[in-house]
Amino acid sequence: MIRRERLTVTVDPALIRAGQDAVAAGRVESVSAWVNLALAERAAKERRLAAMADAIAAYEAKFGVISAAELSAQARADRESARVVRGKPRASTRGRRGRRAA
To answer: What does pTM read for this prediction?
Structure first.
């Protein structure tokens, strides 16, 4: 069994209710388990963000700093190649001079 430690924290009332609702719905066994899960998910997110930052730093060390123009071009290419899976596809803006897409 994993050794647990007691922790006293101040939490927004809405978050306490959300944890209690999760317990009442049977999604977790206790508010402590719900908080533990939230902290574990946050820790995992922080590790992923640190790994991405390290990967970007390594890329830039090898190939140079990624410019704003490169980021913009990639965002545009991503939008153009994206597939709409929910909702309506964006209207094409090709052929409209002087107007920007919303």
So the answer is: 0.67
